[in-house]
Batch of 4 targets.
Target 1
Amino acid sequence: LKMTSKLYLHNLRKFGLKIPETVIASTKDDLENLTEKLDFPIVCKGALKDSYIAEDRMDLHIYFKKIDELLHGGQGNVIFQEFIKGDFYCTTGVADKDSRLLRCLAMKKLGVDFKGSTWCGFTVKNNILREMTEKFIEITGWIGPFELEFICDSQGNYWLFEINPRLPAYIYLAAATGQNIPDALVKLAEGRIIKKDFSYDTDMAFTRLTEEVVYPKRYIDSLNKNGKVQEDAMPDKKCKTIKTFYGLLADKDDDKAAILYQSKTVSYRQLKEKINERCDELKNTIRKKDKVIIRSDETPNTIISIYALDRLGAVIIPVNPLATEKEIQTIINDLKADVIISKKNIKRITDDTIGNLPEDACMIFYTSGTTGKPKGIVHTKESIMNPCLEEGKAYGIDESDIIGGTPSLSSTYGFGAFAIIPFMSGASVSLYPYATSLNNFIEVIETIDTHKITVFFSIPTAYRLMVSMLSMLDKYNLNSLRLLITAGEPLGISLHKNLKQILPHADVLEHLGCTESFHAILSNTPENMKAGSIGKEMPFYKVRIFDNAGKECPPMVKGRLAYEGSSGKYIREKEDNGWKYTGDIAYMDENGYFWFVSRYDDLIKTAGYLISPHEIECALMDSQAVSEAAVIGVPDPIINQRIKAFVVLNNHFEPKDNQLDKSLLKSLKLQLPEYKIPSELVFVDSIPKNKRGKVLRNRLS
């Protein structure tokens, strides 16, 4: 080692690592002044098989009696250490002869008390632990295998309290998660060169049992920090995750902020209390399996009410706060709904509950209806939780994140982003009123700055506003943002580049999902990203491109996009486990990335060609004069449809400029073939969109 022939923990303090106060005793005389250096409780270890916690002098006296013979016989050192309360973590790995960390896996350990001496833990990704481990390797000049043990206190400080110069007994379990450290060690010993690899599966449970024990798997699934089972977290046969949404809150830090709303903060403890209070308020009105419509504005009360309704066994139908009475009545008639909840009252519509839904129905979301009448999609716990769990993992979301954005809680995009993923990960969510988010976008930017949002879910319309407000961003600090996630319509490479220019530290991740899939079936991730694409397959899904005859298309050939996997079902839909078509035209490249072309219904059929309006819109928005564009096909007696473009100009550009339309058409001719050039350009003040920000092409003429 670089430092000395012996390595003492306390010597590492001068390098900035947090180390508990430690006293080493090799004789009985060393024990005399122990309590002058350490306060109770004191951790005692080294002499006996297990560590021992002395809460007071009596405990210490008992321990002294146990180790008396060992010390008297000079059989080694006893270590007494300051007790740090918190969560227990460890890292294991291997470093090469140049003290470079090549393999590293982190695990959070949980205490388990079944029968005999056991422990349980699960793999995590934690950048702080990785950095501390790399620092340890560097300053000690470490070569070979190791295990480091840490405590994370209530303030979020990580303390290194033990070094083990060997691989731990659970190392073969680590290999099962994709981090084969013994294999790397053997290759290093043979003098072979290996590359760094810190990839492994997270949230994989490790269990060690020193006696033969039989117990239900559900106990491991639902352990909290104290190793106790939360009743609400018990899985049932239908659901692979949890029994109620409330179960997501079971093992989280009670004092941590769960929801940030304007100047208010709701902790995880307060959130659970408020949900229980809401259950008490609703229990005499709501019956199990009631179909409950709730106007879902972006406030803590909406999440509290939905979690309470779910705990009472209701089927929840969130509706947009901007929905008209006619739209709500359509949903009531379609579902035969039982109860409607608004801000001010609860109204029971009927006393005759009609059981017209699957037994495991949990929530119903309505499609945006851009191509016709909105359709109700029935989701189960499984179809909600599975995609959210995998999306959170893919984006690296953890308890340090603060999640915010603009989608409505009445959409699957917004509900998953703001009501499931944050609490699943122990993160915080920042809520902002959806109804005013795009009209007062400067307030959204202020919220990002004030709440220090790290992960932002939104739509391209909002990101265009963000870019257009570039001059105002100087007064706000948006450096907290690490992920900008977008869905709902194509982002376009031009807007992607503009976002990276103003926020170079943030990854821009475009994904594609639908109400049926609940969240993303395809997505870019921090590890796999290609600007302009809609990413690769997400876990739980297979995605394919088919031609009109139902034959799978090879790479680079456009066709109809379909997926297979976790999904909701249309109301009154018969069982169907086949491929589900999203209504999109797309293609897959040779590297497995998918590229959006158009909505199938939006394709323009002109002079024998099928043309994507999206391609023309992106080309138009490459111009600094254009803020937004929408392209449609209008009837033509000769060529079937001609191309018409509607353009919203940026500030400082006037539609009265006679040369502007000619200039735009000229720039298009440099990018597109002649048959894709619009025959008409119309300057408008705005593009009509629905409540979710999707372009309403049927209103353009």
Note: Residues 112-117, 224-241 have pLDDT under 50 and may be disordered.
Target 2
Amino acid sequence: MADKFGIVQRNISKYVAREQFCGWNSDCNHRVPIATMHSSVLARRVRLLVVFGFVTAAGFAQSDTEGLAIAPADTPQSGTVVGRHGKFELYNVTTSVGYSSLGNFGTSSSALGTLGADYDITSAVSAGYSSTGEGGYFSLIYTPSYTRRIRFSNLSAFDQSLALSLRHNLTGRSTLKTSLDISDATVQQLAFVPSTFANAAAANGTSGDVLRGIVGQSPASVQVDEAFAQRDTGNAAILAGLFGSRVLTGAAHLEYDWAATARSQLFVATDASRDQPLEANTELGQQSQSTLRSSAESVSAGWNHSLSPRTTTGFAVGYHRSRSGYFNGDVTDANYTVGQEFRNRWFTTASAGLGRVSIGPQTSGAPVRTSLQWLSSGSVGVKGHGQSVIFHAARSGGDSYGLGSDSSTSAGLSWNWTPSRHAYSLFVDNSYQRLREGGTSNVAAWTLGGGAEKRITRQATASLSLAYLDSSGQTLISGQPRISGYQIQLTIAWSPRPVVN
């Protein structure tokens, strides 16, 4: 559950919240993951901001691959496919039809504001190997997908992702967990679709960081406007210049847990990630630096203790480092967390701590900005009568996108309703995040999404999702103060195994 880039503190309140939620779904660690509609680079994180030399809000997804994403094996969700263990198998096949804006830029002076919208058809297959036993579980899932653009056909793209998850019980008291997510995806997918719905088949209420900074393989906005003034705004070459690059994204997590007593647990974890462009954009001339060329590492350790069957507390410390084309960031933090469950229907968590944030530009000899930031987070969840609601909010030090922020504030609200003895469900997922100070000049972004899913046969589901996003603010390189976008998506998913609501 640690942040992908690791510059934000490791929030053990997230761990507590997940444990409480899994208490409602006792088998959430052993379900075979399914592919669900998701249009972001990683299926393990939520993100929303694309900056092509200007601020561009563009995609959000909870955990996090391009096209059709893999829901993590430890993520509780509905619509889970009951699979066999220890065998290679096909998990599901999905097809979707959508209509989405290319991004509505908040300025009439920019030709970018006339890019318009497009229809798309996406197909994906999810297959792999999974095994569960007394010693733990293992899963390896490969998901290729192809998106066909109707209006801008040259931007049709093949994307693929690979997700590995392993949990091994070393002894009766110690456990080793590791995960690896790799995706090969196109940048234009981020700008075409907001994908607020994250999991079209099942909202699970764990949306986190919504901003993702990308200074992407494109020239400054002034050069873009000049190019648009000389060509038709629907010209495929222009659009390919803006949205045609491919990006290889990888994230790895390794964690060791040791049960010191029946009620206490110690953990040590490390995370690493890398975003690397695969193809340079030369359509519009001069390139800018890119936070796409970013990497991050983090290490953390902590202690969790059950004061009672319904009360959990913990303490964690961590060091996080992030490097991008613009800023270097280092955060050292410590935080304390307490969680409480009430009558198997409510849970709440709260966390507080301090972090030392150091932000330095890439410019040689430039001064490093250091500050002490207060850290906090909280969440509350409730279930009953077929419904579940989860709200969370957090304030963390630095930012995880290489944009030079001193702090980040985020919040999210998710709701899911599955009436008993009915083959349908409704869901809503909202997120907000603001980056403060530094080079980001108070960038903010929010998303609003929701939809419905219905089981149409024992092996197939249909879902309709709607999403809207909006962002405001300027970065140190920005030329556009605001961007918004929307998407409507109809998805059909089929599995050779019965689908469980």
Note: The two ends are 24 Å apart (CA to CA).
Target 3
Amino acid sequence: RSSKMPACVVQSSLTDGSRWWMRNNEPGSDPYFAVHLVGCVDAKGTVLVKDENDNETRVPARLLEGLLYPMNLDQQPDCSLLAHLSEAALLANLLSRDGLTLPYTTTGNVL
């Protein structure tokens, strides 16, 4: 193995220091919170993330699981990030947002 290769598995877009929105499953709180990656994806497929309060946690790096979304510094993620997912995932997201009494849209109009 070349000495220039990183010690962990490399995955595009999951780079050290990159910023993401992470799904927050705590009741009564914001649905997403800002995190940044510490290091890169390890051999187990997890990545260490740190929030604004310096709390660290390991999460699976698979982006399609709904845990991490690329950060748009202007707003939290919305349904537009789900355009590439299946209809079942979109429906699950709509039902979840409705259950949390959050606004949601499929056509650009708030339903």
Note: Residues 1-10 have pLDDT under 50 and may be disordered.
Target 4
Amino acid sequence: MKFSTISSASTALLLLPQLVSAHYLFPHFILNDKVSKPQEFTREHDNGFMPLKTPEILTSDDIRCNKGSMNHRTQPKTAKIKAGQDTVGFKTAVGNVFHPGPITIMMSKAPGSIAEYDGSGSWFKVFEMGTKLPWNGKDDGWLTKDKDRFTFKLTDKIPAGEYLMRIEHMAVHQPFKQKELYIMCAHVEVESSYTGPEPGPTIKLPGGYKADDKAFGLDSWANPPPKEAFAPGPALWPGGGGGGDASANDTQPAAPPAQAGKQSQPAKGKPETKGKPDTKAKPDTKAKSDSIKEKSKKVKRILRA
């Protein structure tokens, strides 16, 4: 599915699933505040706006870069980035990250051409964003919610080479252990003079996430509200120890943005909204309806442009 041009009512219909269900994609790669065209550097997939769901996805190769992404592996360009200098990240297609939950960005080095790499190697984490500290246990305490982009300064402690850079948002809005994962990968080539220890700890996908990991056990509707949240995957690199594989059971609390070097703040998101009630009552349908109307207006403005 291409999103580079919005020029007809039929294209607008492609956006309706997102407007109705608050689903989203991350087709734009960001390099030093410049937002790319859709899928210019990101690997398209065949899953549209739909999320991947646990626990089934945890044992599937689709957890790497989403369903059918290998069908599009030769299409993206490769973004050249300088370790320790450039700010990189991802932006949504339309609207913002509507659901609460952590954002993580991991990287995996290709043994050869990135255009043929399936992501079966080791993955290490370079960025995560979670909740405010202290956290009130509610949706409005997530730093990720209602933002449309997530950027960070790439550490200088990454060897030169071609990598898949994978963004993942784990939506935790449902009051049970099944979680929704929104995943996309970019093709990047890192320019670096780093010759130190290999980045780590690392995980493999699938295999690195387990159904009983703390990250997947969060009940956002619990009463009393939860006091801490966890991001999937290994600890951040650098600062997460040396190389070698690590189980996702070693997940760290989902904290405010943490990465060596200067952080660039997520921008242009909507104001934070109130979280879900502390009880297991249904969420505020009026607030959701207002959000959908707002996004519908945005699509109409795009079509008129």
Note: The chain has one domain: 23-298.
